[in-house]
Description:
By secondary structure, the protein is of the alpha/beta class. The protein is built from eight helices and twelve strands.
Amino acid sequence: MKLFLFGGAETDQGQASTLKKQINTVLAEIKPKQLLHIPYARVEVPKGEEDVWGEGWVKRDLNLNGIELLDARAKEDLDKADSPTIFINGGPQRDNIYEKIISNSQLHHLTEKAEYIIGESSGSMVCAEFRITQKNNKGMTVKGLGILKDTIIEPHYSERNRQEALREEMKESKVKYGIGIDSITAVVIDTGSYPDNLKKIGEGIVDFVRIKDFL
Length: 215
């Protein structure tokens, strides 16, 4: 499986269009027949971002020429899915992604067996074995999908000063690896050779941290 994990975009800084162009570049590279969109982190769009991330942005802003777009919320689309590329977008409802995927055996199977997954911000976080969430206004680590074993991921890494947070989350969850990904930047990972042979898209930082290096 090959993962394209983006650190998201700072929408208020006008980065959304760059992120969408980067995702389009990935789509042009892998040329999927189907793109299964998992939108659950951004079902409720933050106020002021409706024109950027509102319902229909994938169909409007991604280059889907020759690609059949499927919506994970539609049972008929899941039934039509035949080894689709998975696209998990970001957004503030990050727990919703995990809960919706694991509670739907059909969607969970398609995600686990995909050849390609594109994740964006919260969609990248959930691919790891552990992820950060908020409970009672406090950050804590909980299970992710486990596609990327022994790992936790922090998107918007430099922009939101998550360097120390990533290391604390690694210690709390007892994983070997942490990945910090800047906005409008991605790490490209082949799960068969992970943690080796990581590649980067974009000009920002991808910080790959081994717990043995700081404990």
